[in-house]
Amino acid sequence: MWPVTRWLWRGLAGVAWGGDPAPVWRSPWQRRAVYGGLTTVTGLLALVSLAGVRRLGGPAGLFGFWSPAPSTRGRPLTVVPLGEGAQRVARRVAAKRTFVTTHDVLLIQKAAPVFFSTPMNAATLDVLVALAVVVPVALAGRYPLLGWRLGWAGLWLVPHAQVGWRWGWSWGPVLLAGVVACFAVAGARQSRAVLCWMGALTLVPWLWHLGLGGTGVAGCLGLAAVGVAADAMAARRRAQVQAAGQAERAELEQARRAVLEERARIARELHDVVAHHLSLIAVRAESAPYRLAGLGGPV
User: Fold this and answer.
1) At a CB cut-off of 8 Å and minimum separation 6, what does 141 contact?
2) Residue 102 DSSP label
3) The whole model's pTM is what?
4) Mean pLDDT estimate for the chain
């Protein structure tokens, strides 16, 4: 029981305050390509996120002046009567459709046409939220765990901002893409315990807002598939690191053996040389009385 508890605690600690390990790049060009592509994707997703807000996007363009259905989302309305010129223009276009500008809702009525204007700070909040949800994508390359933390906080906070997304969800697809991307990259770099905690915590706000319906279950299955793929990548990365470590240790051991063998060879050669000289000295010392006069031996 205690090993499981320690495993869970290490995973929770890693999710709560653990750091992001530095990525290993094969070359500087690979690092530049990844960061350049991530910057481009972040910019495109920022535009998609801005266009995904009902008050900021429309069929006439990415930031079109018209969007289909007026929605005040419970915000106070300021009623301004239309002038005569504006009334003539309104009657001219009333037969075609109802227009909604970027910050204003124009409702055409038969009796008294009025111009509804919502506060400017509501649109400012929409812009800030639409840009904030892109931050996890920008952090996915170097700080994926930090990006996942910010995205997870966004899963809880964005629905309370009352931003009307065009897809009808509590969040836009950009925030979900950022959370999943950071989850996958961080899961491939972190331990399995951290990956499990990240997956479990990601499902809490998802199921809290969507429930156990078809979308909620599909999201759970998709996140589980991403988690399995990230775990497989992490296992492969750990195996590669372990194999590289073993190869390095084998090279060091081989080098140490080569040094020992060289020392042994030098010792043997030195031993042979010293033994030869000592033998020569002994022979010369024993034969000296016979070779030299005055040493007591025959010359």
Assistant:
1) 23, 34, 35, 38, 185
2) S
3) 0.66
4) 78
Q: Which one, of 138, 130, 146, 131, lies nearest residue 38 by Cα?
A: 138
Q: How far is CA 200 from the centre of its chain?
A: 17
Strand partners, 115: 80, 106
What per-residue confidence (pLDDT) applies to 61?
34
Q: If the chain, 299 residues long, is cut into consecutive pieces of 10 residues, what is the mean pLDDT of each piece?
A: 82 89 86 92 92 63 38 43 51 48 40 40 83 93 93 91 78 90 92 92 90 85 93 89 89 93 94 91 84 64
What are the tokens at 117?
Answer: 């204007």
Which two structure tokens, joined as six digits, stand for 246?
């073993």
HSE-up (13 A, CA, CB side) for residue 252: 6
Q: Which residue has the tokens 């018209």?
A: 66
32: part of which helix (H) or strand (E)?
A: helix 28-51
Strand pairing class (104-107; 114-117): antiparallel
168-220, pLDDT tens digit by residue?
777 888 999 999 999 999 999 888 999 999 999 999 999 988 888 888 889 89
- DSSP annotation of 190 reads S
Q: Tokens 């994508």 map to which residue?
A: 137
